[in-house]
Design a protein that fits this description.
Elements: H1 6-18, H2 20-28, E1 31-33, H3 41-61, H4 71-81, H5 85-113, H6 121-140, H7 148-162, H8 168-176, H9 183-215, E2 229-231, H10 232-257, H11 282-288, H12 296-317, H13 329-351, H14 355-361, H15 373-379, H16 381-390, H17 397-403, H18 424-427, H19 434-442, H20 463-475, H21 498-502, H22 506-509, H23 514-526, H24 547-554, H25 558-566, H26 568-571, H27 586-598, H28 641-651, H29 653-656, H30 693-706, H31 728-741, H32 756-785
Antiparallel strand pairs: 1-2
């Protein structure tokens, strides 16, 4: 007797000990009541997409670094410099979206077919758990790139979870790990996304499949159609493979033509971002708005819990064996109404813009005449809609203050801030006259004000608008009682001193005793010195030196300190420190000098637990400006050009025009005339331009960081980086926008492997050839059988 083939022997040996061959044989030859259908492919599509997510997710782990310093840049390295990295990340990004959508469609199909009814209740209940796990994947995933969209989505999501009664604070503590979004939050989201949730969803998918295979497909609701029988192999398998391949083709198409957006490095200080959760939670985001104040827990906990319980109870409430949707009118219509409401609320959440965001987006044109149709087209859809919405607003001083971008450098809260300019409510204590304020707005560099100020002149404004600004500044009411606690970024001494700072009594400042030192410290905080200096006794990351270190090292005399306060450029011609000769009275000046002198005996403040000392720099206090990305320079950050456009219209439009060119026809719609000496950014000087986005960004970075004087009578460009008027993340966004004006893509793929669009066309061509060969083979086989 001949021996069986070796492969058959191995197969039989494995089957005797595991039963796998028998199991798969029964699985493949399973009967399907009513025959096979494309509607049954949704479950297989979910399984395929989950597999794709696992494969591409693991692939990305070889490059991703889960820290706030490197998460964004490491992912961008994968997308731009690793061959086919764009494809891996693109498939993972779009795969998550398609997985969520198809899971929803699969659930809807089961609901319409009545497949949740006895004896398939457990299949339905396990499916609900899988939907919850899918939502958690979509909650944790967007945070991992640590970009603007993901950061604020995570912040809002954790905030919603934290507002749930009883368990909310514990949940927020577990998810966030600290009192704010930071490294701990990122690390915990990472562990959830790549370890805990995959294990959980794999276990429940297995349970779901086992429960499903126990009773099989429920088949059509029409009994006549149920009489026909189809088989999983090869009929349903063919449909499943066809649909999954089309899904794969769609993923490649989306990755090639609509890559995942670059929303810029996460920047908590950016006020132009409207915080929203991931799109899967936008409907809940809108529902919560219906429950303000003390009713908020009803929106954050009550509504989601009610939805889950409603879904879970469905098989036990709708016990009728009837599966025909046309005979279950109330249940089916209720289900479709629920889906419609969710879709509508999701759309509302997508298009929603907060009042704060709209006011920040509001450009200086809002006070000018309504632009022509041609100018509206140049402004783009955001500003066209915004100008239309604000066309009938009456220009007020407060509105002008915001639209001119004054909030970039000043606050009006009565509390010391970390912005470049002083708080104007506190500065009102200097009792400036109306004429002084008018001159400060029109010509801030004029003698008697501050020749070295970075504040641009606003001489282009009409007298009416300047007077409106002066009226607003004079209308600011000084705080007469103890001010609220200062922000966490300001020293504790800044809190509760607003009233005293506004009108410091000369008598209190007299002498060099304890009272004078205390008054000097209050003035130090109120005049904004804390924005550039620290008094901690260790190196810092600010523009100016730490004063304890500097004074102990140099031991300056009181005369030197006074000269530094009055004319700092006499000691250092390149200093950006403003003169306080006209800002402080003689008694106030003496108090500040007494305070500075007293620092020679002050001990260094101990480092907080876990904090590393800032690296010392050559200038001890003039390090490279840092952003929110752990000190990353803007040229090392891939910025978002769309967000950069908002920043441009907020901070640069007054000098450079709506599209970076003061010579464009539309520019006169914003100002009576272009200021002298302002260079065009569109097109930019050829000496600065470069087709390489990294080199181009390096060329313009130095101007945005350090500013540039204007030698032709126009306004000088502010030093946005040195003065911390913009964060490094914002500067990166601004640079991306300037590059886009000149046709250079900051997100250009450096090493694609194969260009994305070419790769898609190649895939389509190969697929077409395979299909034609398969059709030809089928046709030949038909002929041979005839």
């Amino acid at each position: 007797m001949d021996k069986p083939p070796l492969l058959h022997t191995i197969r039989d040996w494995v089957n005797e000990r595991t039963g796998l061959i028998t199991f798969f044989s029964e699985f493949l030859h399973e009967e399907i009541p009513g025959g096979t259908r494309f509607s049954y492919t949704l479950g297989s599509a979910c399984l395929f997409l989950l597999s794709i997510q696992i494969i591409t997710g693991v692939w990305q782990l070889f490059y991703y670094v889960p820290t706030v310093d490197y998460a964004y840049s490491s992912l961008n390295y994968l997308r731009l410099q690793v061959p086919f990295g764009w494809l891996i990340h693109g498939i993972h990004y779009w795969g998550g979206t398609l997985f969520t959508i198809i899971v929803g469609l699969h659930c809807l199909r089961v609901f319409i077919w009545g497949s949740y009814k006895k004896p398939r209740e457990m299949v339905w209940l396990i499916g609900i758990v899988l939907i919850i796990l899918t939502a958690l994947f979509m909650f944790t995933g967007p945070v991992l790139p640590w970009d603007k969209n993901g950061y604020f989505a995570g912040q809002v999501g954790i905030g919603i979870a934290g507002s749930v009664p009883i368990v909310g604070p514990l949940t927020q503590s577990i998810l966030q790990g600290a009192n704010k979004m930071g490294q701990m939050a990122l690390l915990r989201m990472y562990v959830l996304h790549v370890a805990i949730l995959p294990g959980a969803i794999a276990a429940f998918v297995m349970l779901h499949l086992i429960a499903f295979r126990t009773y099989g497909e429920s088949g059509p609701w029409d009994e006549k159609k149920r009489k026909g029988v189809g088989y999983f192999w090869p009929e349903q398998i063919f449909k499943d493979v066809l649909v999954t391949f089309l899904i794969f083709l769609l993923l490649v198409y989306l990755s090639a033509f609509f890559p995942a957006p670059f929303s810029g490095l996460a920047d908590p200080a950016d006020t132009l971002v409207s915080p929203k959760p991931a799109w899967t939670f936008l409907f809940l985001y809108q529902i919560i708005k219906l429950f303000p104040g003390p009713l908020e827990p009803l929106g954050t906990a009550g509504v989601p819990l009610m939805i889950i319980l409603l879904f879970a109870s469905l098989p036990f409430v709708d016990k009728s064996p009837e599966k025909n949707p046309f005979k279950r009118g109330f249940v089916v219509l209720s289900g479709f109404a629920f889906v419609g409401i969710v879709l509508y609320l999701t759309w509302l959440g997508y298009v929603y813009r907060s009042d704060a965001e709209l006011s920040q987006m509001e450009p200086a044109v809002s006070m000018a005449s309504v632009p022509s149709d041609k100018e509206k087209e140049k402004l783009g859809e955001h500003y066209t809609a915004m100008v239309a919405a604000n066309a009938e607003k009456h220009a007020t001083g407060e509105q002008l203050f915001k639209t001119l971008g004054c909030t970039e450098c000043h606050t009006v809260t009565g509390v010391a801030s970390n912005k470049q300019g002083p708080d104007l409510l506190m500065a009102k204590g200097n009792n400036r006259t109306r004429e002084w304020l008018y001159t400060q707005i029109v010509s801030p560099q004029k003698e008697g004000h501050n020749p070295k100020t970075i504040m641009p002149p606003y001489a282009h404004l009409s007298k009416q608008n300047i007077n409106l600004l002066v009226d607003y500044l004079q209308s600011l009411k000084p705080v007469e009682t103890t001010a609220p606690a200062a922000p966490a970024s300001a020293p504790a001494a800044a809190a509760g001193t607003t009233a005293a700072l506004a009108t410091t009594a000369p008598a209190a400042a007299a002498g060099s005793g304890t009272a004078s030192v205390k008054t000097g410290e209050q003035l130090f905080n109120s005049q904004g010195c804390i924005q550039c200096h620290t008094i901690q006794g260790r190196p810092n990351n600010k523009t100016g030196p730490d004063l304890i270190m500097a004074i102990k090292k140099d031991k300056p005399s009181k005369d030197w300190l006074k000269a530094q306060l009055m004319t700092p450029q006499a000691h250092n011609p390149m200093s950006i420190m403003p003169s306080y000769a006209t800002r402080l009275t003689d008694d106030q000046m003496n108090s500040v000098i007494d305070f500075l002198s007293s620092l020679s005996t002050r001990e260094a403040t101990p480092l907080p637990a876990g904090e590393k000392e800032a690296p010392a720099t050559e200038s001890q206090g003039s390090p490279a400006p840092s952003g929110s990305g752990g000190g990353v320079q803007a040229i090392g950050i891939i910025g978002d050009k769309d967000h950069g456009a908002l920043l441009f219209h907020q901070s640069c439009i007054m000098c450079h025009g709506p599209h970076g060119n003061p010579k464009t026809p539309g520019f006169t719609g914003f100002m009576p005339g272009a200021p002298k000496g302002v260079p065009s950014l569109n097109p930019i000087d050829r000496a600065v331009y470069n087709v390489d986005p990294q080199l181009f960004a390096q060329h313009i970075d130095q101007f945005i960081q350090h500013g540039i004087p204007n030698t032709e009578g126009g306004p000088s460009m502010p030093n946005f980086g040195d003065s911390h008027a913009l964060t490094q993340a914002q500067i990166a966004d601004l640079e991306a926008y300037v590059l886009s004006l000149n046709g250079v893509d900051r997100t250009m793929i450096i090493n694609p492997g194969v260009e994305p669009k070419e790769f898609f066309y190649m895939l389509v061509a190969i697929t077409s050839v395979i299909i034609m060969l398969a059709v030809l083979y089928w046709f030949l086989m038909k002929l041979l059988k005839m």
